[in-house]
Specification:
mainly alpha; 191 residues; single chain; 9 helices
Length: 191
């Protein structure tokens, strides 16, 4: 567990990443964003890679909290699950926008840093597993595949909203998608 100062530094690193991208990340900028004395970030995290790794660990902590709440809110029915995911998208593109942008910045950096991407995808798999377990509990067939598809749609909605491509209302789209996941007699699109 991080000390209060280390957590403040990592949170500031996420703010820097979310506001300026990977190239904006420096120990000096993180110190300034954290309101910490010069050299503090470097004291706790000697390299930029160590700072990014700490940011990834902090994101995992936030994911654990956020996804546990999202999945718990949607355990009673598919409609409640759709509502929970819609609320998640709204939060990720509203009050938590900077954190969400930081997450995407780190994912893009992971493309050129395979070890980082392995960690990120391990964290992502945990979210898929939680979602699949919830979908299975709600009677959705092929819950693992359905979870992967649902989360891809959620990420797509988030990306569209962040980039300004389309700020479509999430609730009706997620209700439609979740309802479609629950049927096994949909059209055969394999041919």
């Amino acid at each position: 567990m991080l000390s209060a100062t280390a957590a403040r530094i990592v949170d500031a690193a996420l703010d820097v990443l979310g506001a300026g991208g990977i190239h904006a990340l420096s120990h000096a900028r993180v110190d300034a964003a954290a309101g910490a004395p010069a050299g503090s970030a470097s004291n706790y995290f000697r390299t930029r890679a160590a700072l990014v790794a700490a940011a990834v660990a902090r994101l995992q902590q936030f994911d654990d909290e956020q996804w546990a709440a999202t999945v718990a809110a949607g355990r009673a029915s598919l409609a409640e699950l759709a509502d929970a995911f819609a609320a998640f998208v709204e939060a990720a593109t509203g009050p938590q926008r900077t954190l969400t942008v930081a997450r995407y910045v780190i994912y893009v950096q992971g493309i050129v840093e395979p070890a980082l991407l392995d960690t990120l995808n391990g964290n992502r798999q945990r979210v898929v597993d939680w979602t699949a377990a919830t979908l299975a509990d709600l009677g959705v067939p092929d819950a693992a595949d359905a979870a992967t598809g649902l989360l891809a749609a959620v990420e797509g909605l988030i990306l569209h909203r962040l980039t300004g491509f389309a700020a479509i209302p999430t609730r009706p789209h997620l209700h439609h998608l979740v309802a479609a996941l629950s049927t096994t007699d949909g059209p055969d699109c394999s041919t």
